Amino acid sequence: MLAVAGDSERVDVLARARAFKRSWIELAEALARVYESSAWHGWGFESFEAYCTRELHVTPGTAAKLLGSFRFLRAAAPKVISRSREEPAAPVPSLTAVDFVARATERGAADKKVMGEIRRAAFDEGADGPALSRRFREVAFPVSDEESSDRQRKQLTSTARRLAQLVAEDGVPVPRKIAAAVEEAVGQLLEALED
Questions:
Q1: Cβ–Cβ under 8 Å, residues 129 and 96
Q2: Beta-carbon count within 10 A of 78 CB
Q3: Domain limits of the chain?
Q4: Rounded to the nearest 5°, which phi and psi values hold at 192?
């Protein structure tokens, strides 16, 4: 359904939603200027991270993600930045979408055609990070059989240890016969996984 010009409340909410989506790019751009000029130093902060934490209440990790995503857009898709300013109705990619595209580009596992599809989905269609991941994870971030097997082995080991802890905890009503059987099975499983 399209917003009707006469429905001012609907138009207002739509405009605010678009402004909200654009705001991460605006914040990231401002952070990039502050970082690149070292303005934070002149404001009495010993580091950029301290400035972000104390002044903005933004974690260093979030600041780094904002800066990285903005730098990627500035270098690889500057039209997205200018479009976010000039075309209020244009889709604005989410921070998670830009991060996905940047990581996929850096990884270099997907061919040029697939990367074009990923960029189009993120930048033109407005797909978010989780949607991109569901659609393109296997081609953008392929996992070798060895990595998959290692990951599965670690998950099994962790689950087996957690099961052993649960059965051994005081206050957990597990009959001795079951607890002994679980302990033996978990021990055998852990031995097999370690071999």
A1: yes
A2: 10
A3: 8-88, 93-142, 145-194
A4: -65, -40
